[in-house]
Amino acid sequence: MTMIQALRSAMDVMLERDPDVVIYGQDVGYFGGVFRCTDGLQAKYGKSRVFDAPISEGGIVGTAVGMAAYGLRPVVEIQFADYFYPASDQIVSEAARLRYRSAGQFTAAMTIRMPCGGGIYGGQTHSQSPEAMFTHVCGLRTVMPSNPYDAKGLLIACIENDDPVIFLEPKRLYNGPFDGHHDMPVVPWSKHPLGEVPEGYYTVPLDSAKVVREGAALTVIAYGTMVYVAEAAARETGIDAEIIDLRSIWPLDLNTIVNSVKKTGRCVVVHEATRTSGFGAELCALVQEHCFYQLEAPIERVTGWDTPYPHAQEWAYFPGPERVGAAFKRAMGGA
Amino acid sequence: MSQSKPLTLHVPEPTGRPGCQTDFSYLRLAAAGSARKPPVDVAAADTFDLASTLIRVLDDAGHAVGPWAPDLDSELLRFGLRSMMKTRTFDARMVIAQRQKKMSFYMSSLGEEAIGTAHALALQDGDMNFPTYRQQSLLMAKNFSLVEMICQLLSNERDPLKGRQLPVMYSVREAGFFTISGNLATQFVQAVGWAMASAIKGDTKIASGWIGDGATAESDFNTALTFAHVYRAPVILNVVNNQWAISTFQALAGGESVTFAARGVGSGIASLRVDGNDFLAVYAASRWAAERARANLGPTLIEWVTYRAGPHSTSDDPSKYRPADDWSHFPLGDPVERLRQHLTGLGLWSDEQHAATQQELEAEIVAAQKQAEQFGTLAHGRAPGAASMFEDVYKDMPEHLRRQRQQSGV
């Protein structure tokens, strides 16, 4: 399966298993989503389970909070992560805090899917990686898969989870893995082992990172598209990097990170999002706090620049394998 | 027109400021009994006249007149009056307790007691209200425990919300009272979502959303109307127009030369504009809207015309922005006095009964306050333990919160 098919399969499985799961968002119903992620679901489950919504992110998330308070398990879509901002109040002030402020009387078991990330000539409002906007909010879970297998298993886990979850989908990875070499043809998921996705129900646990490449020289903490960029950088520099795909961005799997950095003594944090106050800052702080005596070099951060996401300058902005590789070398003590 | 004079910015102002008298002619009043009562399956577009006039039942002499006069039995009428009196007495007591520093903050609903009280009586058990911070009368009409309410206000060890919320931000699921948020208007769209959920599940419950005149300017107001209309959600959308949003007159929220009820019609929602100080009109209109929703005929928007008689909150001094005697000039009067007059006229109530009920309520509230204070107050401690601060952020406490709880030493 592609990531699109895997996500659709996750929703299909959960619509089938749990009569309280409902799916809606802009163009999600009849048309099946602008990325085809909900294709065929309305025909299969009917309009009261899968339906189109007005163009109102605040309305989509706000009604979902109400539905969750009733006892449904809404899975709503924001067409692009770049357009979640109008729903900020409902996400931060309501969904995230419903359980806390009502001492558990009302809860918001809901999942908000948002295609995110750049590398597709999406310009300023089709490329953003706003995960740090969510990781800073107590009460939210933020999750980002990097391959079809995880995408389905994580999405099912998120839908079943009783906390509100922001589920970020790197649209650059929808049809195949991408390592930042934009001048090379993209390999489809059908030719990748992680494109093997079971048809039925399974989950990938939350709060659990995955070591996608074992290594001894340094630890790379990445998620989404950057996992493949890091792999390419390791290949091309010949540096024996241990690459961790966080999968659950927050709350995260601290043990896997700490164990790895304690072993390697070096750490490079990689994300597409802009640098200042990005999630990488939290990762650096955690590593510094927990691995200070094992660190043999300053923690490196490779991120998007502190600018809005440009159009023409896409590949100068996107942290590709060359920039990531250079950070590997710096972390190893090279120039 | 070829001449271009310099443009000017229009900034609405209330007619009455401190030291002068408000001209209430802007209110678009109508005589009791004059508004028609349409069938519950009326088309939204055919309610424009009802969104522009004022539905009233009680006339100046306290008689129930016109097609909206509800058929309420005397027991329920007396209970309604008692619930209003209870709301008012409770508010007055809590304002004193705030002044005595037993609680940090309070918001009274003086003058608005009829709306929540009568509305609650028109709903059924299982329906869910999505209130603002000024619908405590909904809880009074549900006979909800005063002790629990006061414990929340005191943030003491029996506070059902474990001291996490500002006073007044109640949450009472069992009484159909959704958790109050400080963020205005957010609950208006959540009410629509709750109603959609009820429809999705083929349930028979309905939702009731609440918002003030000022908060209609928030985007969630518009959003709620759109979603309610699009999905024909079984929801009552209540706009409590008490003329003031803290210091801001309702004209600045967009109420100049237009009613808030008319917004509903513009969104394709059947809409009513109702005398919010007329217990009988509130009950009748609420009942009508609830019937409509329960019959799957869609949402109703109701603008309740009333007056915020008290300060916005215990942190507010209204004499700095409006006339001190404004309420005495408000043409729709006092909801308690109007129902009292009506019941007295029917021989269902007397001055003696009124005085006795008032005394009874005072005693009940004082006793509840005493009982609640045994579990601690803000001034005298016994707040919920600090360790509970870390609970309920997530369903299960994640590792980082367990670590922080440990670090905090509690």
From TrEMBL, chain A:
Q: Which CDD domains match?
A: TPP_PYR_E1-PDHc-beta_like
Record's keyword annotation contains Oxidoreductase: yes
Cofactor(s) for this UniProt protein = thiamine diphosphate
Name the Pfam families on file: Transket_pyr, Transketolase_C
Q: Which GO MF terms does the UniProt record name?
A: branched-chain 2-oxo acid dehydrogenase activity
Q: Which EC number(s) does the record attach to this protein? A: 1.2.4.4
TM ranges: none
Choose any GO biological process term that the UniProt entry carries and state it.
Answer: branched-chain amino acid catabolic process
Under the heading SMART domains, the entry gives:
Transket_pyr
Q: Which UniProt keywords apply?
A: Oxidoreductase
Transketolase-like pyrimidine-binding domain location is 1-176
Q: What is this protein called?
A: 3-methyl-2-oxobutanoate dehydrogenase (2-methylpropanoyl-transferring)
**Which lineage do the record's taxonomy fields give for this organism?**
Bacteria, Pseudomonadati, Pseudomonadota, Betaproteobacteria, Burkholderiales
From TrEMBL, chain B:
Q: Where is the Dehydrogenase E1 component domain?
A: 82-376
Supply the enzyme class, top level. oxidoreductase
Reactions the enzyme catalyzes: N(6)-[(R)-lipoyl]-L-lysyl-[protein] + 3-methyl-2-oxobutanoate + H(+) = N(6)-[(R)-S(8)-2-methylpropanoyldihydrolipoyl]-L-lysyl-[protein] + CO2
Q: Where is the signal peptide?
A: none
Q: Which InterPro entries match?
A: Alpha-ketoacid_DH_E1_comp, DH_E1, Oxoisoval_DH_suAlpha_N_dom, THDP-binding
Annotated ranges, domain 2-oxoisovalerate dehydrogenase E1 alpha subunit N-terminal: 5-44
Per the UniProt entry, the Enzyme Commission number(s) are 1.2.4.4
Any GO molecular function:
branched-chain 2-oxo acid dehydrogenase activity
The alphabetical list of record keywords is: Oxidoreductase, Thiamine pyrophosphate
**Pfam families, alphabetically?**
E1_dh (PF00676), OxoDH_E1alpha_N (PF12573)
Q: What are its GO biological-process terms? A: branched-chain amino acid catabolic process
Specify the superkingdom: Bacteria
Q: Could you say which cofactors this protein requires?
A: thiamine diphosphate
Q: What does this protein do?
A: The branched-chain alpha-keto dehydrogenase complex catalyzes the overall conversion of alpha-keto acids to acyl-CoA and CO(2). It contains multiple copies of three enzymatic components: branched-chain alpha-keto acid decarboxylase (E1), lipoamide acyltransferase (E2) and lipoamide dehydrogenase (E3).
Give the family from UniProt: Belongs to the BCKDHA family.
Tell me what this protein is called: 2-oxoisovalerate dehydrogenase subunit alpha
Q: Name its species.
A: Massilia psychrophila
